[in-house]
Amino acid sequence: MVTSSCEREVSDEVQFATFSNNPEVFIDGFSGGLEYFPFGGSKLDAFSVDSEVRYKGEASMRFDVPNVGDPSGSYAGAIFPDYGGRDLSGYDALTFWAKATKAATINEIGFGQDFGENKFLVTKNNLRISTTWTKYIIPIPDPFKLTVENGMFWYSEGPENGDGYSFWIDELQFEKLGTVAQPQPSIFFGEDIVAESFLDIVGLIPAPALTQTFNLASGINETVTAAPSYFTFTSSDVDIVRVSELGVLSPVGLGTAEITATLGGVKAEGSLTLTVSGGFDFAAIPTRDPNNVISIFSDTYTNVPVDFYNGFFAPFQTTLGGAVEINGENIIVYEDLNFVATEFKNPTVNASAMTHFHVDIRIDESIDSADFIEVELGDFGPNGAFNGPDSDDSSGSVTFDSGALTTGQWISLDIPLSDFTGLTSTGNLAQIFFISDATISTLLVDNMYFYTE
Amino acid sequence: MKTQILLDRYVSLKWYNSISIKGVPLIAIFFLVLGCSTEETQTVVNFTEITMQDDFDTDGAPDSSIWGYDIGNGPNGDGWGNQELQYYTDRPENITVNNGHLIITAKQGDFNGSGYTSARILTKGKFEQKYGRFEARMRLPYGKGMWPAFWMLGADIDSNPWPACGEIDIMENAGSAPTIISGAVHGPEYFGGSPILKKYDLEDDRFDTGFHVFGIEWGPEYINYYVDDVLYNQITPADVTGEWVFDKGPFYIIINLAVGGLFDGPPNADTVFPQTMLIDYVRVYKYNGLN
Q1: Do B142 and A217 count as a contact with CB atoms less than 8 A apart?
Q2: What is the average pLDDT across A248-252?
């Protein structure tokens, strides 16, 4: 080598710190550094190394999903981290071969979960597997982010229709396929969402629903849920809405700002235009004499014991949400509403001396002509227990169609108990339902109480 | 001399061992073993005299001295006989030369009764040649329902209708298979759904993320197909299930991006529009009589 300048070459002693780029997670056994931690509440021994059933080589990973009611755990789920950290930036996907004792759908499977920040969590939701060995590809949303990753693999799966089953995973590794292409990142379901929020309140902002989609060699688009840290968020006005690195939106000023994002330099489909108003507009404070009120949910009165504000009744209920605190005040926020129940059966409520049910509701989305809110009361009868139809239970409902609903303001409903046709008793009230059949998605609720005038 | 020709062809094919060579005499293999240099720089380039070259260096419409247009949805209004869904136009939004590339864009949107628009250009009556090397460097679109093609038809098509005129498909791709292209010939008794066709699967890469060269080397009684420096097929009269119609006269070039049709079926909900097919260059070389 001929050098004519005064530049010195890097000496042999210079060593840069590097992390292992070992692509192997589980080929025929645990790769170096790999550990196993099941989730709390899961069947702790769901995972085993199986040397009988395997796709290739000496062994595979076997997962035994429990039946409903299995005392050892209600589901199977675990993380497989390497806390030494690995540089995965040279790969474009986690791949594995899998099969199951029956066709099934694994709820969540992916990588990037380490029981820490889960900063680069990737989840493939609802992975369909079959009884034959098949190769699966979980793309890395942006490999350049994964220079020191701990979460090599994770999964979570419950019984299918009450029944457990087993599945196997083999040849689990990161690969540079070269065919993971045409990224289509998406935020807010790829839609341009318009929403309102209030100064310093985070709870009411729509979830960003972050995904990355790649076209694979098969021609199929594969979509994974990607952690916020894969994205670079931009607020059109940081004096109105700020976005943290973890994707948390904070309304900090009055006005309107648009939130957009990129992933790996590609603009994500979808946006959120958030208009920030002053303080949150609470429902009017009730003024009735506490002696004439039995309160279920209110900051004004003393509430009776309530079991829950959202029963999450499976499998037909979609409704999410429940009671939230906003600047010290409590309201209920239901999202993805189809129906939802508040239950207070310990003890049931004797409202036979009351004449009305009061509730304040608020709908901030546009109201279409077919939209409605149905309010239903349920009485458990003298035995104080839910028995269903043809028992001492009774129920009745009152429906408010679109003509009775106004968007963007609290609607105060004072419903005579006698209007709840079919409700034969108010001596053992235990349930309040809100039903929209998905016509109205987000419903705010406050001040639920029975009263007499 | 016959033996020498076969030897040369075998040498150039040998390095790409997906080839099945038919009818190579034993004597040729004997010579090969004894006398063949085994350099790995063996290439498919055998013809070097350029007869047509378009590097698409002038922005605007494609060079009208080389290229004409097929407009519409086929002479019978049936999607060019293939149930293709697009209406071909010469609008800049469907075809233009920009920044050194010919850009053919398939768009979604109703136009003259079709749900999509795209473009198809051809050298008919402008550049026609018998034998030689025909190649183009392209980046393909992707997504179900995309059907980009670089192909040729016998220039006697007006008096000798398809399939008798012959068709040489240098490159066809189904958008739902982004790693696979195919080369084929169509002629009497081997046309439509029964061409003589071979697929080529690109390893660890795709045709929609970078440029690749698609070409043929065509001479008497043979057509060699290649992608980049990989020769992946040879078609000879022994391979076709009917009359060999590729020694009768010149052919012209067609480049198009179809949407839907019999090759890949219609687009689906995942197909992203618009889609672009980029052509960096088209080059044609003269047959040198040696191969």
Answers
A1: no
A2: 88
Inter-chain CB proximity B270 and A221 less than 8 Å: yes
Q: Could you confirm whether B167 is annotated as catalytic?
A: yes
Q: Cβ B209–A219 below 8 Å, yes or no? A: no
Cis peptide before A315 (omega within 30 of 0): yes
Residue of B128, B135, B167, B217 with catalytic role:
B167
Beta pairing partners, A235: A259
Instruction: Kindly report, residue by residue over A1-12, the tens digit of the pLDDT.
Output: 444 555 666 666
Residue A206, both tokens: 């729509």
Query: By three-state DSSP, how is residue B245 classified?
Result: coil
Please name every residue paired with A84 in a beta bridge, in sequence order, or none if there are none: none
DSSP character for B133?
A: E
Q: Is the pLDDT of residue A415 over 80?
A: yes
Four-CA torsion A291, A297, A300, A303, nearest 10 degrees: 50
What is the three-class DSSP state of B8? Answer: helix
Nearest Cα to A229, choosing from A155, A146, A115, A154? Answer: A146
ipTM here: 0.80
Query: Token match 């069947």: residue?
Result: A43
Chain A residue whose CA is closest to B173: A219
- A80 near A149, Cβ under 8 Å? no
Q: Report which DSSP code applies to B28.
A: H
Query: Nearest-CA residue of chain B relative to A223?
Result: B270
- What single-letter amino acid sits at B259? V
Compare CB distances from B178 to A176, A184, A217 and report the shortest one's residue. A217
Q: Does A215 touch chain B (CB under 8 A)?
A: yes
Instruction: Going residue by residue through chain B, which has 291 residues, state the pLDDT in tens, using 9 for 90 and above.
Output: 333 333 333 333 333 333 333 333 333 333 333 333 334 444 566 788 999 999 999 999 999 999 999 999 998 888 998 899 999 999 999 999 999 999 999 999 999 999 999 999 999 999 999 999 999 999 999 999 999 999 999 999 999 999 999 999 999 999 999 999 999 999 998 988 889 999 999 999 999 999 999 999 999 999 999 999 999 999 999 999 999 999 999 999 999 999 999 999 999 999 999 999 999 999 999 998 765
| Catalytic pick among B135, B172, B189, B217 | B172
Q: What is the pTM of this model?
A: 0.75
CB contact under 8 A, B270 and A178: no
Return the closest-CA partner of residue A327 out of A199, A195, A448. A199
d(CA A218, CA A232): 29
Select the residue of A177, A220, A221 nearest B204 (Cβ to Cβ): A177
- If we measure between CA atoms, which residue out of A33, A21, A61 comes closest to residue A176? A21
Distance CA A448, CA A435 (A): 15
Q: How far apart are CA A51 and CA A31, in angstroms?
A: 16
